[in-house]
Design goal:
By secondary structure, the protein is an alpha+beta fold. The protein is built from six helices and 14 strands. It has a single domain, classed as CNF1/YfiH-like putative cysteine hydrolases.
Length: 250
């Protein structure tokens, strides 16, 4: 079965996959793409193989990361034997497919088609505040990309109407930039609704890069997407992760 995926206007092979079309069961059902070992590793590997083939790539060309909500970026020149610890990756090597796993955080895909440089980033609020998106742009520049040509798309992630946060998160975001207060809508006492995708888009806009908005709210759309927060609210953890991919054709 070929798993379904969503696309943006990026001019290179890419896809924002849903939780549908895989072989995992239960809370990981069905297209869990995480390699954290909580799902049966053989099933997760089959899910990722299906994703790669859906994109037109061999399964061994789909690269992954050990994501830790930081700003580090890995540069890929060939399939790696061991996943690096980073939250973004870039490449100028044809035939590689970059895969970012998420379960509410924002997957952001980048492309400069003229330079033949692509990138993918995992942008939770911590990583976004730490500068993972800007670091991805910098790493693409190091490979020859021009920010004036870079196109970006934000994939399915938690939407503002679903993302209630406390003062500690808001304080950390505002400590980095007070103007980010516009991304918080007042809710219950000492609670706010945070617009993560708009925050990510604004950070990219400061670098002159326009980003298309996410096509779905992961928490609100249970039929199509995994959501860590939904699982946490329900006391049903761990959960699966969807994957977003971008590649350079050989």
């Amino acid at each position: 079965m070929t798993p379904p995926f969503l696309t943006a206007s990026l001019p290179v092979p890419h896809g924002f996959f849903t939780r549908q079309g895989g072989v995992s069961a239960g809370r990981f059902g069905s297209l869990n793409a995480s390699l954290n070992g909580r799902d049966d590793p053989a099933l997760a590997a089959e899910n990722r193989a299906r994703v790669a083939r859906a994109m037109g790539f061999a399964p061994d060309r789909l690269l992954g990361l050990v994501q830790v909500h930081g700003p580090a970026v890995a540069t890929a020149t060939a399939p790696w034997a061991e996943r690096p610890t980073a939250d973004a990756m870039v490449t100028a090597t044809p035939g590689l497919l970059l895969g970012i796993v998420t379960a509410d955080c924002a997957p952001v895909l980048f492309a400069d088609p003229e330079a033949g440089v692509i990138g993918g980033a995992h942008a939770g609020w911590r990583g976004a505040v730490a500068g993972v998106l800007e670091a991805t742009v910098d790493a693409m520049q190091a490979l020859g990309a021009d920010p004036a040509r870079i196109q970006a798309a934000i994939g399915p992630c938690i939407g503002q109407a679903s993302y209630e946060v406390a003062a500690d998160l808001r304080d950390e975001v505002l400590a980095e930039d007070l103007s980010a207060a516009r991304f918080f809508q007042t809710g219950r006492p000492d609670r706010w609704w945070f617009d993560l995708p708009a925050y990510c888009a604004a950070r990219l806009a400061r670098r002159g890069i326009a980003a298309t908005p996410p096509p779905a709210d992961t928490l609100a759309d249970e039929a199509r997407f995994f959501s860590y927060r939904r699982g946490s609210i329900a006391g049903d953890l761990p959960v699966g992760h969807q994957i977003s991919c971008i590649g350079l054709a050989s």
